[in-house]
Automatic annotation (TrEMBL):
Metal-binding listed as a keyword: no
Protein name: Aromatic-ring-hydroxylating dioxygenase subunit beta
SUPFAM superfamilies per UniProt: NTF2-like
Entry similarity comment: Belongs to the bacterial ring-hydroxylating dioxygenase beta subunit family.
Pfam families for the chain: Ring_hydroxyl_B (PF00866)
InterPro entries in the record: NTF2-like_dom_sf, Rng_hydr_dOase-bsu
Keywords: Dioxygenase, Oxidoreductase
Keyword Hydrolase: no
GO MF annotation list: dioxygenase activity
Length: 177
C-alpha cells in the first residue's frame, strides 16, 4: 500500500533529480590536454607549460571567489606577458623561495563541462597539489580551465584557481598552482 507520505517523497526525489542534472564530462582529448598542463607544471617543464597558453590568456588565483581582479587584490592575476615573465623567473633557478625546488604532484578530479562553444570548452575540476619542500603541504580547491581548439590541438585561454584556503594566511605560491 502506497501512502501519501511515500508519494510525496517520490515526487520530491523526482523534482531533485530534474533540478540537479549532472554536468557532462569533457571529451578525452580535452581532459588529456588538462592533464598535460598539470604534468608540465609538476615536472618543472615551465617553457613547455608556457607554450600551452593563448596570446589572450589569463591566469588568475583570486583571494576570494567573488573578487573583481581589476579593483581588488589577487594572489595571481597574469596576462600572457606576465605569464612569460613568471616562467622566465622560474627558469633562472634563482628564486630563494624555490631553493631547493618543490617536488610536486597534482590530481584533477570531478571534471565537468561548464560551458562549450564552437571553439572553446570551459571545464571545472577539483584539484589537490601535493608539494614537498622541507615539509609536505597540500593545496586544494577548484580550478576552471577554458581551452580553445586550434587546428588539431588546444591552447589554454584561461585558468582560474579557487584555493580552499583563499583569504586566509597562505605559504608562498612560488610555483605554478
Amino acid at each position: 500500500m502506497v501512502t501519501t507520505e511515500d508519494s510525496t517523497a517520490t515526487s520530491a526525489a523526482a523534482d531533485v533529480a530534474r533540478t540537479f542534472t549532472p554536468l557532462p564530462a569533457p571529451d578525452a582529448d580535452v581532459a588529456g590536454f588538462l592533464y598535460l598542463e598539470s604534468r608540465l607544471a609538476d615536472e618543472g617543464r615551465y617553457s613547455e607549460w608556457e607554450l600551452l597558453w593563448a596570446d589572450d590568456a589569463l591566469y588568475w588565483v583570486p583571494m576570494h571567489p567573488d573578487t573583481d581582479p581589476r579593483t581588488q587584490l589577487s594572489y595571481i592575476y597574469d596576462n600572457r606577458r606576465r605569464i612569460k615573465s613568471r616562467v622566465a623567473q622560474l627558469n633562472t633557478g634563482n628564486r630563494h623561495s624555490q631553493t631547493p625546488p618543490s617536488v610536486m604532484r597534482r590530481t584533477l578530479s570531478n571534471m565537468e563541462v561548464l560551458e562549450s562553444t564552437s571553439d572553446t570548452v570551459t571545464v571545472g575540476s577539483n584539484f589537490a597539489v601535493f608539494e614537498y619542500r622541507h615539509t609536505q603541504r597540500i593545496w586544494a580547491g577548484r580550478v576552471i580551465h577554458t581551452v580553445r581548439r586550434i587546428g588539431s590541438g588546444f591552447e589554454l585561454v584561461s585558468k582560474t584557481v579557487h584555493l580552499v584556503g583563499a583569504g586566509g594566511p597562505l605559504d608562498t605560491l612560488a610555483f605554478l598552482i
